[in-house]
Specification:
Helix content is about 45%, strand content about 20%. With about 325 residues, it is an alpha/beta fold. The protein folds into two domains: about 35-125 and about 255-325, D-Maltodextrin-Binding Protein, domain 2, CATH 3.40.190; about 130-245, D-Maltodextrin-Binding Protein, domain 2 (3-Layer(aba) Sandwich), CATH 3.40.190.10. Keywords: Receptor.
């Protein structure tokens, strides 16, 4: 009997010990280990450059390393799906943008997800796209580009970073309104396309302005028109395509923010949102991203970011429906 009672006590003590360990782990402050930030594009892309600055700054504020993982391909959908499959513990996040969260699910049949599937954490950065050309390309302005393309129908090749990216959609709208057609050359990301442009192996490319602004400044590429309704605040000297004689009302706005997998705990979301918003308020953050050509948004709540994503889905759905008619 005594042996049996001793055995019961031993089991109870062991159970209590395991429970205590469980409680300790459950109450462990977040983050307790490094965080992976998925960038759904190759290294060197505009979002990747921004992501590396964010990871470095955010890691300092959270007291844990934030590690960039580039998962490019299929207009960002491969990386996006990996982020959606991650455990909802806050240790795998994604720097998503309008292309992989809104456009790709509408255009890429294999995507099979929706931007609203993610847990919205913080809306962060904005930017524009631009048509750039290799240094030796004959045209130097939007009007000259249109004239050259009309005189050489379907002989100008244009690099694109996927059919479901905001810059490609803007470039297609530009061609339709200008009455021209480029020969599309697909790339997995902006970085390899930029290399080919500077090497003279590609005529023109539609790309996020932050990816190529330094090369435009250095004369390694030339801008043939920013694909926005207004001039970019970080490059006010670069004309838009809408300032040409032939094209009006062409524009696309890039935005990016931090998201997580579905069912991310509210306390984790709150911790991340607070740290990110503090980071975005700093003058150093705004200046460093302005140098890349990005605009820092005003800090927002997760609910506001989620609502914004839903509104963008409706806006682009209408644009795509009009284009397909």
């Amino acid at each position: 009997m005594r042996a049996r009672q001793f055995g019961i006590r031993l089991v109870l003590v062991a159970a209590a010990s395991w429970a205590a360990v469980g409680i300790g782990r459950a109450s462990e402050p977040y983050p307790a280990k490094p965080i992976t930030l998925i960038v759904p594009y190759p290294a060197g892309a505009a979002v990747d450059n921004a992501g590396r600055l964010i990871a470095q700054d955010l890691g300092k504020r959270l007291g844990q390393q934030v590690i960039i993982e580039n998962v490019g391909g299929a207009s960002g959908t491969i990386g996006a799906k990996k982020a959606l499959r991650a455990p909802p513990d806050g240790y795998t996040l994604m720097l998503g943008n309008v292309s992989d969260m809104v456009l790709a699910p509408m255009i890429v049949k294999e995507a099979k997800y929706d931007g609203s599937d993610f847990t919205a954490i913080a809306k962060m950065l904005g930017g524009t796209a631009v048509i750039v050309a290799k240094p030796s390309f004959p045209a130097n302005t939007t009007d000259e580009l249109i004239a050259y393309a009309k005189a050489n129908p379907e002989k100008v090749n244009m690099g694109s970073t996927g059919s479901a990216t905001f810059q490609t959609l803007a470039a297609l709208t530009f061609q339709q309104k200008a009455g021209i057609k480029f020969v599309e050359v697909p790339y997995k990301g902006g970085a390899p396309m930029t290399v080919d442009l500077m090497a003279g192996q590609l005529d023109v490319g539609a790309i996020a302005l932050p990816s190529v602004l330094p090369y435009i400044r250095q004369g390694k590429l030339k801008s043939l028109g920013v694909l926005s309704l207004q001039r970019d605040v970080n490059a006010p000297d670069l004309p838009t395509v809408n300032e040409s004689r032939y094209v009006k009302d062409v524009g696309a706005t890039m935005w990016a923010g931090i998201v997580g997998p579905p069912k991310l705990p509210a306390d984790v979301v709150e911790r991340l949102n607070k740290a990110i918003n503090e980071m975005m308020r700093s003058a150093e953050f705004k200046q460093s991203h302005a140098q890349l050509g990005s605009i820092t948004f005003e800090p927002s709540t997760p609910a506001e970011f989620h609502k914004f994503i839903s509104e963008e889905q409706g806006r682009y759905r209408r644009l795509i429906d009009v284009r397909e008619k």
